[in-house]
Specification:
The complex is a heterodimer. By secondary structure, chain A is an alpha+beta fold. Chain A is 29% helix and 15% strand. Classes of the chains: A alpha+beta, B alpha/beta. The complex binds flavin-adenine dinucleotide (FAD), iron/sulfur cluster (2 copies) and FE2/S2 (inorganic) cluster. One iron/sulfur cluster binds next to α7 and α8 of chain A.
Chain lengths: 241, 595
């Protein structure tokens, strides 16, 4: 790799290691990365080769595992799907952990509360009919209802961008969990719709969503939790009358 | 350094497809089970599988498990064990239908059945013409499958230890397996998981190569742990290079693209696969397509300024088909190749993808090693499934969609075998051998104190570059011999790696250093086994074993129709025979492979 092909980057990274730091701080780092580094994650791996103490999660490097969600220049996203070329020249790239969750270390947050909410909606198919010998049938049209719902990678970009979740992480299910709830409600094979609606019938779990749309704005998979939430709310209203 | 001990009926290491499938079996049987995983279960690399899972459901046209079995044996270049292959192909419908019952959102045919597409090497009527056998959820089959199985485990109340890294296998002087040592990544705490049954489902080690479709976490931990505990590794010379990794990025473009009608073209725009595989063309077996591509590139018909890739063309397909059946591919092409696949072809190169070898097992998921009486004696308390295991159903070359099937069938059978042993009361919590625990403590302590050692990142890169150069798509006698020396040299460096970060809290530098200990075992096993096997078979093709009338395709059945077994101790090789006798049908007789 010739030097002329490389690119100079200026990072400001949130650092905190409870083992040695009294409190978090922002670290300035300048680094040359090779031109073959296309994505933010590539540059972070280059950076980590120089300073092995920078901690972040990553795995698939192709936007399907949901590991490397972080706050990039103020907006939640996946490092592996963020193009380095999308950053304006001459401005630092500011990396922070996802907001609203406790920080374990550097860019690694404690996702317990996020998964607790996901688990609270019973994220599995409920159908008590005797199982047929072969697959249950489902028309292509009915199957299409699941598009835009099942593809969620549980990265938490949406939920940790949602003000309602920041204020009530223990009570509000959050966009990712509600999207999952609707994924099962919308599945013609699932028989627990009314139980699922009961589960969300309280002032917080569903109704804390004020359609602020932050979630839609940040989802790296282009999903629309707000729309799913709207559909659940409609069903609640319909069954009330 | 302190550690504590926790007791379970069973410990499963890995929560990808194989681990989750085994966990369903154990949890639903009411066994006290711990599932350890380095990442949250749905972040395991099964999530990245795209194309589908094989089963002869026959939803769109006639199909039969026996045809599937034939294709798998042929695909394996006859190195697969025919008993395990029959077992897998006969079980396929059952395990795929179970997934549907768990709630997996398969695509559907007009009559509401599971949608199936053609895939490389899968043919009807014993090799006649491509058949629709791959059951798919768009091009996100692995994601849909992994999430459905995780969800089923939530329902079954499975106990997960998320972000725990298993470090060493605990195996006593009698050779029995009693659990694993592991580290809580968040706190650095070390715990011995003392179990009556231990199931490895740690996935592949594609990261031994420089260019790979595998995730960062695919570091062969289970395989490395087994090797350190004296278990031989089977057929590690066989690595699948997938024909279509995005040039430069390594990210996979599923073969399902060719299943839906995509075509490979060289710089002249020629559909070159017609010359190499007149019958199956672009849907020939993966080793065949990868070699054809490299041949095109080597002979100057590659594309781009450096003529170092070929093109995957889907511009002739209806945009609706692409957006409906291959939406993820469209996204990947934009993200990682910078092309709109509706309008432009995608630059692709063969990329390391899948580990055919692994921890030797029988078709019940029990780990087997040569013993005093037979070549396959059961290791008490030890099971393995998925990419880390070698059943062996893929032999010298795996067919696409057979891996997701493998992890379902053998994840389930490993779980069933463990449940049966536990129910029979055959297993107890035998006393723990202190040496195994000390080995783990010593590895971690060394990293805390090592001075003036090798850099982890650099050492790993050296290994990856050496493997890419010395054990790639085509292999050369001299290069292999040189590669053995290089890798053994790098292995010494691995024994002296140094990390700057000494924190106890989520120390990712330490995690990577401990992973490298496993990667290097896999690299050693691969290069040593490859150097010794002086024939060409499946994915292992050498210059000094060319196509001759006596040995078509360079395959030498008289001397090499046998499985390699590599032992870490003494870097030693042994061999065992291939099981040519299936369970109920006639043996599929040796033939020259052509597509
Ligand atoms: C991009 C891509 C696409 C593919 N597409 C297909 C396809 O369409 N069809 C098909 O049949 N096959 C496909 N394959 C192959 C197939 O996906 C894999 O072989 C299979 O998913 C492996 O599953 P597994 O359960 O064995 O391992 P993985 O899914 O890799 O899971 C491994 C698990 O082990 C855990 N683990 C590893 N080490 C440790 C440790 N030390 N301590 C604790 N936990 C540990 C990990 O956390 C993880 O949970 C594809 C592969 C790739 C890379
Ligand atoms: S739309 Fe609702 S869920 Fe989404 S960010 Fe706003 S409040 Fe949160
Ligand atoms: S909805 Fe989108 S942002 Fe939210 S968790 Fe799922 S993939 Fe991530
Ligand atoms: S690393 Fe998997 S989503 Fe980015």
């Amino acid at each position: 790799m010739t030097v002329s092909n490389s690119r100079k980057l200026h990072f400001k990274i949130y650092r905190y290691d409870p083992d040695k730091d009294a409190k978090p701080y922002m670290q300035d780092i300048e680094i040359e990365v090779p031109a073959t580094d296309r994505k933010l994650l590539d540059a972070m791996v280059t950076l980590k080769a120089k300073d092995d103490s920078i901690a972040f999660r990553r795995s698939c490097r192709e936007g399907v595992c949901g590991s490397d969600a972080m706050n990039i220049n103020g907006k939640n996203g996946l490092a592996c799907l963020t193009d380095l070329s999308s950053f304006p020249e001459g401005k630092p790239i500011i990396l922070r952990p996802l907001p609203g969750l406790p920080v374990i270390r550097d860019l690694i947050v404690d996702m317990t509360q996020f998964f607790k909410q996901y688990h609270s909606i019973k994220p599995y198919l409920i159908n008590n009919d005797p199982l047929p010998e072969r697959e249950r049938l489902q028309s292509p049209e009915d199957r299409e209802e699941l598009n835009g719902l099942y593809e969620c990678i549980l990265c938490a970009c949406c939920t940790t961008a949602c003000p309602s979740f920041w204020w009530n992480p223990d009570k509000f299910v959050g966009p990712a969990g509600l999207l999952a709830a609707y994924r099962f409600i919308a599945d013609t094979r699932d028989q627990a719709t009314s139980e699922r609606l009961d589960n969300l019938e309280d002032p917080y779990r569903l109704f804390r969503c004020h359609t602020i749309m932050n979630c839609v704005d940040v989802c790296p998979k282009g999903l629309n939790p707000t729309k799913a939430i709207g559909k659940i709310k409609d069903m609640m209203v319909k069954r009330a009358i | 350094m302190n550690y504590s001990v926790r007791k379970f009926d069973a410990v499963i290491v890995g929560a990808g497809g194989a681990g989750l499938r085994a966990a369903i079996q154990l949890s639903e049987a009411g066994m006290k089970t711990a599932v350890l995983t380095k990442v949250f279960p749905t972040r395991s690399h099964t999530v990245a599988a795209q194309g589908g899972v094989a089963a002869s459901l026959g939803n769109s046209e006639e199909d039969h498990w026996h045809w599937h079995m034939y294709d798998t044996v042929k695909g394996s270049d006859w190195l697969g064990d025919q008993d395990a292959i029959e077992f897998m192909c006969r079980k396929a419908n059952e395990v795929v239908v179970e997934l549907e019952h768990y709630g997996m959102p398969f695509d559907r045919t007009d009559s509401g059945k599971i949608y199936q597409r053609p895939f490389g090497g899968h043919m009807s009527n014993f090799g006649e013409k491509p058949v629709r056998r791959s059951c798919a959820a768009a091009d996100r089959t692995g994601h849909a499958m992994l999430h459905a199985m995780y969800q089923r485990n939530v329902k079954a109340n499975t106990q997960f230890f998320v972000e725990w890294q298993a470090l060493d296998l605990v195996r006593d002087a009698d050779g029995e397996v009693l659990g694993v040592t592991a580290m809580d990544m968040e706190t650095g705490e070390i715990v011995v998981f003392h179990a009556k049954a231990t199931i490895f489902a740690t996935g592949g080690a594609g990261r031994i190569y420089y260019s790979s479709t595998n995730a960062f976490i695919n570091t062969g931990d289970g395989v490395g742990m087994a090797a350190r505990a004296g278990i031989p590794l089977e057929d590690m010379e066989f690595w699948q290079f997938h024909p279509t990794g995005v040039a430069g990025a390594g990210v996979l473009i599923t073969e399902g693209v060719r299943g839906e009608g995509g075509i490979l073209r060289n710089a002249q725009g020629e559909r070159f696969m017609e010359r190499y595989a007149p019958n199956a063309k672009d849907l020939a077996s993966r080793d065949v397509v990868s070699r054809a591509m490299v041949t095109e590139i080597n002979e100057g018909r590659g594309c781009g300024p450096n003529k170092d890739f070929v093109l995957l063309d889907i511009t002739h397909l209806p945009p609706e088909t692409i957006m409906k059946r291959l939406p993820g591919i469209h996204e990947i092409a934009v993200q990682f190749a910078g092309v709109d696949a509706l309008k432009e072809p995608i630059p692709v190169v063969p990329t390391c993808h899948y580990q055919m070898g692994g921890i030797p097992t029988n078709y019940n998921g029990q780990v087997v090693v040569p013993g005093k009486r037979t070549q396959s004696e059961i290791v008490p308390g030890f099971y393995a499934a998925g990419e880390c295991a070698c059943a062996s159903v893929h032999g010298a070359n795996r067919l696409g969609t057979n891996s997701l099937l493998d992890l379902l069938v053998f994840g389930k059978s490993a779980g069933e075998s463990a449940v049966a042993e536990l129910r029979a009361g055959n297993r107890t919590h035998k006393p723990l051998p202190q040496e195994c625990i000390d080995q783990t403590l010593a590895r971690v302590n060394r990293l805390n104190t090592q001075k003036g050692g090798a850099n982890v990142h650099e050492t790993r890169l050296d290994m990856q570059r050496a493997m890419q150069k010395h054990a790639g798509v085509f292999r050369f006698k001299d290069m292999l011999a040189e590669g053995v020396e290089k890798i053994l040299g790098i292995a010494e460096q691995v024994g002296q790696t140094e990390i700057a970060d000494k924190s106890m809290v989520f120390n990712t530098a330490r995690i990577e250093a401990l992973e490298l200990d496993n990667l290097i075992e896999v690299a050693k096993a691969t290069i040593v086994s490859a150097n010794a096997r002086t024939e060409s078979r499946g994915a292992h093709v050498r210059d000094d074993a060319p196509d001759t009338p006596a040995n078509p395709n360079g395959r030498d059945d008289a001397n090499w129709l046998k499985h390699s077994l590599w032992y870490r101790e003494g870097n030693r090789l042994d061999y065992k025979s291939v099981k040519l006798t299936p369970l109920s049908v006639d043996s599929i007789e040796l033939k020259t492979r052509a597509y």
